[in-house]
Structure formats: C-alpha cells, structure tokens
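Hey, resending since the last one bounced:
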Amino acid sequence: MPVHEVDITPPPTAQHVFIARQPIFDRTPSRVAYELLYRASREATAAQSGLSATFMCGDTALHALLSIGLERLTAGTRAFVNITEDHLLGELYKIFDAQAVVLELLETIDATPAVLDACERAAAEGYLLALDDYDGRDSLDPLLPLVSIVKVDVLPWTQSGTLDQLAPLVAKLKAHELTILAERVETPAQLEQCRAMGFDLFQGYVFSRPETLDGRAANVHQAAVFQIVSMLNQPRVTERELEDAFRSHPSLSFTLLRIVNSASFGGRSVDSISHAIRLVGREALSRWMIIMLVASVGARSAVAHEAVMMALVRGRFCEVVSAHAGHGDPSARFLVGLLSRMDTLLGLPMEQVLERLPVSQDVRDALLFSRGPHADVLLLADAYERADWDAVEQEVPGMRAAFTELYTESVMWAGDRLASATPS
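The structure tokens again:
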C-alpha cells in the first residue's frame, strides 16, 4: 500500500475554500445525511457553515463545490447546505439536484411575501427545505407549512440547564407534522432527553465520543490483531513465528488473503501465509491490520461505523497534509491520526491502547500529551473537523489552496478502505 505517494493538484476554483462535514443521525440511530461546513474566504466568520459562505465570496467557492461534487463528499447521502435570502430569491440552489440536498434557510431570513413565494417554488420543484436555528419567533410561523425540517440549537439550553423547557416548542412543531433536528448535542444524557421530547434527528459531538460506542475491552479478535501488529514491528520475530500467529486465528488468515486480494496489491495469487506476508511486506501489513482492527469496530452500530470513518479520514488527512507540505513523516502521522480515535473506538483509555501497540515515543507524546513533532498535525485535523478555520490557517499557513482537495481525497480513500476492510 503506497504511503507517501500523494499527488493532489487542487483545481484553481477550489483554492480559497475549506470544506468539512458532520453526520446527522435519526432515532435508530442511522446516519441519514451530512451537513457540509464551509469557509470560503478570510473575511468569512471562523465557524460559518453552508452555502452562505460560498455565495458571499463569489463564484470561486461555488465553482469549487461543483468541481468537487457532492457525491465525493457524501457518498450519495443527502447534504444539508445553508442558503441566504438572496440565494433563495435568486434560485441559485438549482445548481444542485433536488434529491441530493436539503436547503437550510438561515435564521436571518424573514417570512416576507417574496421569501414565501420562493419557498413554494423550491418545494414544488422537489427540494426539501429546513429552517435553521429555529427559536420559536412568531414571525417565522408562516414558513412552517413550507419547510419539512426544523433545526433547533440545543446547546444554549443545555448550558443553562433548561433543556426541558424546549418541550412546548417541540410540541408546537410536532403539531405542524415537522421533522425536528436537535443540533449541537454533546452528551448521551442530552441525546436521551432530546429523544424523549420528540426530536427526530440529531447532530453533534456526542456521536464521536467514547460513551456512545458501548465501550468495552478488546475482544479476542481485536487482541489477536494487537498481538500480530506488535510482532510485525519487531525485527527479531521470524517469518515462521508470524505464520504461526496467523494460523492460530483462521479469521485473520482469511483477512490476510483479503488484503493480498485487494486492489492495492493487484489481486495477486498466493500459495501460503508466509508468501502473503512477504508479498505485502511487514510495514504495509501492519498498517492494513490496524485498519482492519478499526473497521471491525464499525460493525457494532451506525454510530460506530461513522466514528470509524472519521478515524480513517483523520489518519489519511494527517498523512496527505504532511506529504503535501513536505514536513514530517507521513506514515507516522497517518498512525497518529488514526490512533487518536482508537480510545473512542475500543472504549479503552488511550494509555491502555498504546500499551498494546509498539509505537514510538513521538507518537505517544502526540496522543497522550499533545506535544512533539506530530502534535501540530493532530491539532490541525481536529480544528478542521470542528470547522475552526482560523485555527486551521494558524496551524499550517499557506496551504489553504490544498485543504479542500486533500480532505475530499481523504474522505474517498477512507470509504474505499472501510469497504474493503470490513469483515463480511
């Protein structure tokens, strides 16, 4: 598997755009959409999201999004995108397929006759409309019959300890037979409270934290993977010892054959486990086994699957950013990015995760103490995922032209690896 071969040439139209994404789940929970988060210029606010940033900054960002393609960022899942009143009235949303997007009407939009007419036209053409950051103002009531989804920011209510006071607002929206989305949900307790009140969709950091993934000690399969990864990184371990380790776990032997049969190795034929190990190589096999370990966790639930995707995207993003910048060891930074979510995925403290893996002190320092040569790329990846664009530029100045394409490539790479690595 190539580690350092990163040849990403961002299209000129994408040179001033940052794009990230955040999953949206239903009550089951299954992931039903992504909200796309944008920043298209230095003048845009640090955490601005959606098409508001795109259109405010002219054609450059708009063309960038078109050239990237929603499919590459969402894998066919609907994308929530924000639009301003001007964009709605100008029908600029028509650049998107109605089946591919949900148009979020920003909270700054007033229910004027022109806006109501524009909403009716968009709905008649098959577009789903969502009302963003709804706060119960009577002036927004005329929009309720025209939208399908209403988003409520629950964070201010949770911070003030008054989340239960949202119940009347939820009941009012339910009376209109609307789908209600709770955004910025941060803890399992808040999630359960929102479910009990009748919210239908949910979005927030709660879906990337350990307690949502039914944390538990590594099972036998995962422990075996840890053991083999450790052996692969010890030069004194012989080929025969590695073969015996694989033979002791038939499912891992099958995994090894799947790795060799993957597109990364051209579907090569092998006649023994030792032949497969030599063909793949120890370093690449160690990397693949860790990906397999991560992928095995994704089978637990839709939330776990999305968290696995985020881990793979983060690992790849750390790698390609380092390769593109010509700074740091891309292979080590892939490992740092991926492992930074391993505590979440396995439900184990990071210290215990690292006890099972033969990682360098630099990797340990980055993961445990946010210091050392790999700490900066980890901070960058975290800032990018949170759409903290000012922090992104501060961490790696001068690379804004590349970020969108590098992130998109990471999303696609992660999807491909997860599909090939997930146990049948």
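Confidence is low (pLDDT under 50) at residues 1-15, 41-62, 210-217.

Sorry for the duplicate.
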